């Protein structure tokens, strides 16, 4: 009996030891997975902004838009995403297990456009960069939820605000533009418009959706960063950035009125009514405000010659309506020089919808816009009990609206490895965090 009891005890303690070892490995794996995703997330944000020292203040100086450190940072996202796949294969697969059919149509359009591209090499590189840059924010949002994702966005926005103010003060020869944009601040960014777009969306990300509690040091830092962002927006002299900041701030709190009503059917009715009203009034309000802001900066309603570019590019859509000219083609300087003849150097289409129609064709841009509208409608009608998640969802809604509005006058705001692509990916994601159910008891 003693020998049998000892055998049972040995089996029991060995099993208990194995369970403890497996539990410790799961904890270490979770910690390592979060570290990998966090590093990749910050790297993706930095790569998207393109901030770097010494970017020229005048485009005529001929510096590359994508310097070597930015390329290396983009390449580093590949092994980081691969390492996360090895750590959490099920979660990685889960992230891509429920893809909208509309995204499938967009993907097919992108691949088809590459087949018929006028430069397949450039199109392949452009699509690869978009996918690689989308992975870290998408995986982080799916793993830890929108609240945690916006904490990362907020920390990065605070750091970027202070960095750009200090950079402008220390290196005005690089931070303040010359040539046709003389006197406009671009900070550590390549162009003043990208700085304006980033500051507008970052300002909305830093706005609080909770009641003001006890004053903390972190709150003072956040307020100081928001003041820096506002100062940078004004210094860029970007009418689009000013309009987006005003619209975003108002919408963030206006949407809260809809979320007061818990009935989803009533919300759907209100949202549908708002879409109709906004559809009729947006053209008058947006153009009116934009005109006033543009005049304040010494510009006109044609948005600094953008309409001249659009008039030349729009007819090209009907030459290749189904396949487009190739993914990312109308972001290439030589392509723009071939098809656009203006008195100034037109480096982009200055309209994301037009750019996507030219790149991937009408079916692709149609499916993408429909996906944006349906996802926006869904996010506005979902009832969210938790206040933090509800506030983060409102920010997602505002970001989608701002990007859709900003895309009217700026290129590269969607399906492009640029400034707001990580924000777009987070805002459009719908996956709930895996450990949400496990966190609720501890939060209570």
From TrEMBL:
GO cellular component: membrane
Any GO MF annotation of the entry: ligase activity
Membrane topology, as annotated: Multi-pass membrane protein
Keyword Transmembrane applies: yes
Transmembrane parts of this sequence: 31-48, 68-87, 99-118, 124-140, 152-176, 219-235, 270-294, 356-377, 397-421
Main location (coarse class): membrane
A Pfam family the protein falls into: Wzy_C
Keywords noted in UniProt: Ligase, Membrane, Transmembrane, Transmembrane helix
Subcellular location field: Membrane
InterPro entries: O-antigen_ligase-rel_domated, WaaL-like
Domain of life of the native organism: Bacteria
Domain (O-antigen ligase-related) ranges: 224-369
Name under which the protein is recorded: O-antigen ligase family protein
Species of origin: Rhizobium anhuiense
Lineage: Bacteria, Pseudomonadati, Pseudomonadota, Alphaproteobacteria, Hyphomicrobiales
